[in-house]
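This section describes the prediction task in plain terms. A model, or a person checking by hand, is given the sequence of a single protein chain and must write out its three-dimensional structure as a string of tokens. No templates, partner chains or ligands are provided. The sample shown here is typical of the held-out split.
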Amino acid sequence: MAHKPIQIKDAGLSFPHKDCFEHFTAQIRHGDRVAVIGRNGSGKSTLLRMLQGMFEPSEGQIEVPDDVVFGYVPQVIEEFDALSGGERLNEALTRALANDPNVLLLDEPTNHLDLQNRKSLMRWLSSYAGTLIVVSHDVELIRTCIDSLWHIDGGKVRVFYGNYNDYLRERDVAWNAQFQKQADLRKEQRKARAAVQREQERTSRGRRAIARETDRAKRNAMKEKGSRVGGKNRSRVIEVKLPAHRAGLPG
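The expected answer:
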């Protein structure tokens, strides 16, 4: 059964010790097949619980229409701990599908599955007609069963529409662009530091030149003053000696 779109409006998730993401806005339409990816502890599993109303967002809101029926398989299936990984998943899926959900939420469904059970699960998910939202690190599952990704990273949820290979290419382009931007910024910072250093050196040279010129002027002034004083003293000597010389002349 189809459902009306689920609206995520400016949603955020934070805890006292960390902020997972903020300002997340998206729409989930019937038939969407979403993989939620990101580092451990980034808030992926909590986001699944937020969609179901099991956990309130720290900010914003999630509007779930009345015609949405959720089926949920959590990551840890403790009640089936006596069973194998494949048997646990089968039991959990049976319970999740009991109410005929049109939105199926799976948290790391391929954990603890052997190769055969993983292949069986992916074949089943590929043919699932409802809306599918999966938290997973399983690249093969994401490539096989998903057509859009929510990447929780750096406090944001980035939405990418397309297959996983396209996502990787776009991510690499974004990373390369960011790397180039940082390299350009470092280059500009080096140029700015060099310009400041050149200006400081120019100012320092100017100050040294002014100091030398001041010292030279002082020395010249002292020499000139010494010359004037010496000239006056010589004049006095002459003035004193002349009368004495003249006194010895015959009258």
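For orientation: The longest strand covers residues 18-28.
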